Each structure stands twice: as C-alpha cells, then as structure tokens.
Automatic annotation (TrEMBL):
GO CC term, one of those recorded: plasma membrane
Residue ranges of domain ABC transmembrane type-1 in the record: 14-208
Membrane topology, from the record: Multi-pass membrane protein
Membership in a protein family: Belongs to the binding-protein-dependent transport system permease family. CysTW subfamily.
Record keywords, A-Z: Cell membrane, Membrane, Transmembrane, Transmembrane helix, Transport
Organism the protein comes from: Ciceribacter selenitireducens ATCC BAA-1503
Keyword Acetylation: no
Protein known as: ABC transmembrane type-1 domain-containing protein
An individual GO BP term: D-methionine transmembrane transport
InterPro entries reported for this sequence: AA_ABC_Transporter_Permease, MetI-like, MetI-like_sf
Predominant location category: membrane
Subcellular location: Cell membrane
Length: 222
C-alpha cells in the first residue's frame, strides 16, 4: 500500500477511535461516577445508608461487568439502533462502549473512595459537615489520585474495546486492521495499527500517571 494512502487511513481511523473513546469515557464517567459514590457511601452505617438499594445496584453493576464485551455489543443492538438509528459505524459503537464503561468505572470509583482514611470522615462529621459536604470536600478530594488512575484505566480499556468493535463494523483502528490487515492480507497495515494502538495506550497511561502524582499529596511532600 502507498505510504500516503496508509497515513490517510491511519489518521481517519485514529480520529474515529478518539471520538469513540472520548465520547464513551465522558458519558460513562458522568453516569458511572455518581453510581460509584453511591456504592461507596450507601452501605449499612455509612453516609447515606440504604443497604437494600446498595445490594440491588451492586448486583446490576456486577451483572453488566461480567458480560463479555463482544456479547454486549450484539445483545444491545436494538437499543443501539433506537439511540443512533443504526448498528454500525462510529456513532453506533459509542453506545455499547458507554454501556460497558458505566459499571466498570463505577466499581473503580467505589474502590478509590473506600481507600480514603475513615478518620477523615469522622473528623469532618465532628466538625458538623453534612454527608453531602463530606462526599464533595473530603471523599472526592482525597480520592483524586485514585480517581485519576481509575479514569486512566478506563481510557486504556476503552481503546482496547474500541478496537474490538471494529470486528462488527464499528470503525476506528480495529476496523482498519481487520478490513485491510486481515481480510486483504496487508500485514503492513496490521503492523501500523498495532504500533499506533501501543503508542496511544502509552500516551494515555503516562498522562494518567502524571495526573495522579500531581493529585497525590504524599508525593508532593517527598
């Protein structure tokens, strides 16, 4: 394949992949973050005690997380068509990517919040802080490094998932690798796709690590 043509195809596929990752990441975070906060604060004796609801939400999140992504893509095709009017292409791929992201990030956010020192919560309570103030000014503030790493892991996972939706006509780098690298026997295209994915993942991971270090008070004091 001509070099100019390969660069053009890679640029277009990379742009589609970035659209999918950013859109699914943003929407998934907007929905998944409050679910994660709820899971971390609604157990028995916690800030917003609702253990029965907590168990139900936890079961739904676990069920969604345990569904293999490629099966999820196929299973929600009717919903994808309802939302986007089609089941193929970049816009359609954002729907299953977002659905997969929500429970994934909810559990990561829950884990990050649960790592916050319980003594800080008790201190805030002793000073008269409301549960909502404790969440916003203590839990989320102290969990920033963990949340940064959670968002980084989510973005890296989304890059991998976005490559998988290429197998079902989702567009992006995965679609380019399958259509040209595999179906048309062009190993140079497949190699280029793999290299771009590796570089993209490394860039996202490095940026996330840097952000987490900036948020980590302990690293700033060392």
């Amino acid at each position: 394949m001509a070099y100019d043509m390969l660069i053009g195809l890679l640029a277009k596929a990379l742009w589609q992949t970035m659209q999918m990752v950013v859109a699914a990441g943003v929407i998934g975070t907007i929905i998944g973050l409050p679910i994660g906060v709820f899971l971390a604060t609604s157990g028995k004796g916690e800030l917003f005690p609702a253990p029965a609801v907590n168990r139900v939400v936890g079961l739904v999140v676990n069920a969604a997380r345990s569904t293999p992504f490629i099966i999820l893509v196929v299973a929600i095709i009717p919903f994808t068509r309802l939302v986007t009017g089609t089941s193929i292409g970049t816009a359609a791929a954002i729907v299953p990517l977002t659905v997969a992201t929500i429970p994934f990030i909810a559990r990561l956010i829950e884990s990050a919040i649960r790592e916050v020192d319980k003594g800080l919560i008790e201190a805030a309570r002793a000073m008269g802080a409301t549960p909502l103030q404790i969440v916003t000014k203590v839990l989320l503030a102290e969990a920033k490094p963990g949340i940064a790493m959670a968002l980084t892991l989510t973005a890296v996972s989304l890059i991998g998932y976005s490559a998988m939706v290429g197998a079902v006509g989702g567009g992006g780098l995965g679609d380019l690798g399958i259509r040209y690298g595999y179906q048309r026997f062009m190993p140079d295209v497949m190699l280029a796709v793999v290299v771009v994915l590796i570089v993209l993942v490394q860039a996202v991971q490095s940026a996330g690590d840097h952000l987490a270090r900036r948020f980590d008070k302990r690293s700033r004091h060392n």
